[in-house]
Each structure stands twice: as structure tokens, then as C-alpha cells.
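In the previous lecture we treated proteins in isolation. Real proteins rarely work alone, and many bind small molecules. This record shows how such a complex is specified: first the sequence, then the SMILES for zinc ion.
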Amino acid sequence: MKRLFFKILIVFALLFFAAQAWAWHDKTHLMIAKAAGRTSWYNAAGPDLAKIKAGNIEEYNHWYNNNAEAEVTVRMVMDQVGRYNQRNKLMDSEGHVYGAIIASLRAYDKTVQSGKYAEYHLDYCAHYIGDLSQPLHNVPYDDYNKTWHSATDGVVENTIWNEMDKITAQMYEIRLSAEDFEADLAREIARIANLSRRLGYRLRAENRTLTKEEAFGQLGHSASLLKAVLVHYQPRR
Ligand SMILES: [Zn+2]
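The predicted 3D structure, ligand included, written as C-alpha cells:
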């Protein structure tokens, strides 16, 4: 009887974790945006809030499960752009976070041109660039991923409020040219995606979550890319 109770408890625990928001936890997202110099860094967790009302329209913008475990290319990134805010479960079961980064910036540009308030689109972009470096958002959603996802999302969450310097210490300069901005951005997205999925495979092989050190390295990639995007838009801000 005790064993049965224990088994039921495990099932409930797994269900609970399966229902968690699948992304770096809130403060981690906020601190990536803050480290990158985003003025409205406090909005960077918002896209996870949107999920509970928008459901699949928003969900698929946050990850790419890469079931083929294929090298992420610029072309693959660009092919995902048109899937932004789509919810075709059959056609798009792997998600499209790489395309969402670029599509949210296109939405920003369009809204600026129409003279409306555009900043929320950049806030969405800041969140997606954060998700890009979560290793388990770049690998198949298999048993390993399900088991370790929430722990990996939260690995620095409890301490990060006072540890922004650990992100900035991992930052480096990324140049996105004005002439070829989207192509350069797609190249950098692919580069970080490939680093992240390789780290994901290593974690899976070792059946563990990230170390804090590894997590800050990943957050450094996201913050560096977001900073480069913000630099590109600076003249308008
Ligand atoms: Zn997310």
C-alpha cells in the first residue's frame, strides 16, 4: 500500500512539473534583459504570462525541440519566421523560437512605422533571446528533458537577483551590421542554438541538470545577443 501511495505521489509530482512554465524562470529572464541593458527589463518574463491565455499561439514561440538533432542553420532559422504565433500542432510540433526572435523584431519595425507603441514587441524578443540559451529548449522533449526541465529552468533562480555580475562577466561583443541585420542575427541565433543543443546532449548523456557555472555561461550568450539587438535599435529609442 505504501508503495502504491509513493507511486501515485511520483505521478502527481511529474504532472506538476510537466505543467510548469517551460522557460528560464522569471527572475532569470529579467536579469538577462537587465544585464543586456534593456530599459524595460521588468517585462522580460511577460511572454510566459501570455502563455496561460494565448495557449498554443504563444507556446511554440519559446522552444525548438529539434527532433532530428540537426545542425541549426541560417536557413532553418529563417524558415521558422513565418511560423511565429502559429499553433499548428501537426505541422509545427517542434516549435520555432529561432524564427520568433526575428519575427518579433519585424513586428516591432512594423508597429514603429505605423506610429503605434512598439516596445512590447522588443520585450517579447528579449524573452525569446533568453529562451534561446536554455539547452533543453534546443533538444528533443524526451524523457530526459521532461525529468530535468524544471530543475534546469530554475538552476540560478534563487540567487540571481544579486548575481547579475555573473552574467555580465560572461558577456562578449556581438556585431550585427546595419546593412545585413537579419542575416547577421540569424547567423548568431544559429551559433548559440548549436552551442546550446550540444550542451543539452552532454547533460543528457550525464543525466543531470546544468551547473550554475554552465548556466551563467548560457545566460551570457543570451545577454550578449540581446545587447547587440538593442544597440541596433538604439538610434530609434
Ligand atoms: Zn519562454
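Summary for your notes: Residues 178 and 209 are 38 Å apart (CA to CA). Residues 23, 47-48, 62, 127, 131 surround zinc ion (CB under 6 Å).
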